[in-house]
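Reviewers of the previous submission asked for a worked example of the structure-prediction workflow described in the proposal, so we include one complete record here. The input consisted solely of the amino acid sequence. No template or homolog information was supplied to the procedure at any stage.
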Amino acid sequence: AALTVRFLTRRFIGEYGDMEFIYSHTLTVDGREILFHIWDVPSSQADDGSSEEKRIQWADSFVLVYSICDRASFNILPLKIQFIKAAKEGQSQEKVPIVIVGNKRDLHHQRVVSSEEGRLLALSLDCGFYEVSAAE
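From that input alone, the workflow returned the following structure tokens.
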């Protein structure tokens, strides 16, 4: 989760509009260096079917971030996850790693999506779940 938060921070503290970025980061896990490439795509750009398909084929795992203060960002998750699973798991029998992340936990007074809703959605779609605050 710490790695996720580090990259989420760049995305959500200073909004940069509809640009997309690829971040690279090396992490040592069990004595092995692992190079991560993270393709950060704003939701507004993820709607083009052919571009989205290209991104899905490029990635090995997925972190879908919604705002706990924005119901619409939460409501699109099931469709996005079904699209990802159909594209990735249709080609192989391996389960694709997907994590749902509720962001802006520090703005609890503006919360419209409960933690329980996030957990239940993740459970029903067989995904991981975290709530974070990139501002913290």
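The CA atoms of residues 11 and 40 lie 8 Å apart. We consider this example representative of the routine output the project will generate in years two and three.
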